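Example for tutorial group B:
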């Protein structure tokens, strides 16, 4: 296969791990983003998204030469919008070229006309012209000397700083005020259109597991890494940007439980083109999703029996067991090959028991609790912690991409439950500390708003901190994460510590504050309502 020559400004098709080929353009990376070691790669900005990534040369194809091929295999709405963005970019670039061409022609015509009128007719005039040219050359020479002198003056600066100042121009980078999309298509792309590309193949294919993907892959927000512990993360960028390139699985998806988290998850599965059958204990909650294209299941058993992969997201260990083991439950619909994914936050013993009964019927099991809140669920930006059947984890890829920004595979069943409880233990304890700080500020005559402003300027600054403090300052405790559920998670995390004889005094103290808040009828409010435990 002939070598493919690429350069800055080329339009390409780039392949990101398991994502489908996407149109982009080779651009300069930010100064602080180092190029990955290993095989040659380019930094690509993708059209129709805010994504950027380092892509290996073998994962790039010229845009024009493969346009028809890519359009045939990708039919998504966002993909078409990305292609439209490329074509609009090309039209703008062509319009600029034509304008520049007309301007140059007019300028040349005016110069020729002027030269005709002022063409020298004598030797003296020719000599004057020669002298004039000599002055120009001399001035150029003086200009060079001035530049050199300026460089000498800059010599007092450290070599590193001088190199930083000069490097953008040496590498041919555009000035800072130039936008990436203003670079017209280079002649290299046009020249490659006729090149032999028949042997060009994507690696890895969409069906390959994550661990086989490019080990040098580096992306602002989109990355995949495999740890020595066997933990794998598939991280995605802005949900809108990344989800736009999802190819939904052709497997039939079931979903049980349409609470704060489940509702957002199902909505995103439907938006990304998945075929979904829903069930909820309160049937009316299904109506909205039926209108969006979901199918209705009458019982959990029916959903499992008619779907390939069934997800469930319920409130606590008891609800998770009842859903599987109860009348017309999940277990009654399980037969060899059926898949069950429990996204509930429960203890390791519960999830291990459920896994055993599902597998005993020939089913496949994966635990996948999620970290986040209602807003993150709605935005498709959850963090998914999975453990159990690795093959099933891979089969859930497009679903996880639709509902979350990141998913981690943590090994054997029970690991995800433990990790999720630890995460929520930290979050719940932090929330209690925030409430404690705000009330202490109030009783000591300090401004709570000023405290928040100070925290937001320091190392603790985060969306979570700001949102929860705003809830408290505004007295708005509409649930984004139920207080009763964070207290349940603290209780389970403390039990987890007890089981291995590990002290959890901070979590235990926080748990007592949440228990007091529950006694004040705050269970169904947001976790930030723990503040009220301090003021009553």
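The residue assignment follows.
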């Amino acid at each position: 296969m002939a070598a493919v020559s690429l350069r800055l400004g080329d339009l390409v098709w780039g392949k990101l791990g398991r994502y489908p080929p996407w149109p982009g353009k080779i651009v300069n990376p930010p100064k602080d983003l180092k190029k990955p070691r290993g095989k040659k790669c380019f930094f690509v900005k993708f059209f129709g998204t805010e994504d950027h990534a380092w892509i290996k040369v073998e994962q790039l194809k010229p845009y024009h030469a493969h346009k028809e091929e890519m359009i045939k295999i990708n039919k998504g709405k966002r993909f078409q919008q990305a292609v439209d963005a490329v074509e609009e970019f090309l039209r703008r670039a062509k319009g600029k070229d034509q304008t520049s061409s007309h301007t140059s022609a007019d300028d040349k015509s005016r110069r020729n006309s002027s030269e005709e009128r002022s063409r020298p007719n004598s030797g003296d005039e020719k000599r004057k012209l020669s002298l004039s040219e000599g002055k120009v050359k001399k001035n150029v020479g003086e200009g060079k000397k001035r530049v050199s002198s300026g460089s000498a003056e800059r010599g007092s600066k450290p070599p590193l700083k001088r190199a930083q100042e000069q490097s953008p121009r040496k590498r041919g980078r555009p000035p800072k005020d130039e936008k990436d999309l203003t670079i017209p298509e280079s002649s290299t792309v046009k020249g490659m259109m006729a090149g032999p590309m028949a042997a060009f193949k994507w690696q890895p294919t969409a069906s390959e597991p994550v661990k086989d993907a490019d080990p040098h892959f580096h992306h602002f927000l989109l990355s995949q890494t495999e740890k020595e512990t066997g933990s794998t993360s598939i991280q995605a960028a802005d949900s809108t940007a990344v989800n736009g390139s999802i190819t939904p699985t052709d497997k039939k998806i079931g979903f049980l439980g349409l609470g704060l988290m489940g509702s957002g998850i199902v909505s995103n599965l439907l938006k990304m083109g998945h075929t979904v059958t829903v069930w909820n204990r309160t049937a009316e909650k299904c109506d909205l999703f039926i209108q969006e294209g979901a199918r209705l299941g009458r019982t959990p058993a029916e959903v499992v029996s008619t779907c390939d992969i069934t997800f469930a997201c319920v409130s606590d260990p008891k609800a998770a067991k009842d859903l599987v083991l109860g009348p017309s439950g999940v277990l009654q619909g399980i037969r060899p090959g059926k898949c069950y994914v429990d996204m509930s936050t429960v203890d390791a013993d519960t999830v291990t028991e459920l896994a055993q009964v599902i597998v005993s019927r020939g089913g496949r099991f994966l635990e996948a609790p999620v970290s986040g809140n209602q807003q993150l669920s709605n935005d498709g930006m959850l963090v998914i912690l999975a453990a159990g059947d690795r093959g099933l984890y891979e089969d859930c890829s497009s679903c996880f991409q639709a509902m979350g920004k990141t998913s981690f595979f943590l090994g054997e069943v029970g690991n995800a439950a433990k990790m999720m409880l630890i995460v929520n233990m930290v979050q719940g304890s932090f929330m209690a500390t925030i409430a404690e700080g705000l009330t202490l500020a109030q009783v000591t005559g300090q401004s709570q708003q000023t405290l928040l402003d100070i925290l937001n300027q320091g190392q603790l600054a985060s969306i979570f901190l700001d949102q929860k403090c705003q809830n408290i300052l505004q007295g708005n405790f509409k649930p984004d994460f139920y207080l009763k559920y964070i207290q349940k998670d603290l209780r389970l995390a403390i039990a987890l510590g007890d089981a291995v004889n590990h002290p959890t005094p901070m979590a235990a103290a926080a748990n007592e504050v949440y228990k007091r808040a529950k006694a004040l009828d705050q269970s169904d409010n947001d976790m930030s309502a723990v503040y009220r435990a301090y003021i009553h």
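The chain is about 50% helix and 15% strand. Compare this with the pattern of hydrophobic and polar residues in the output above.
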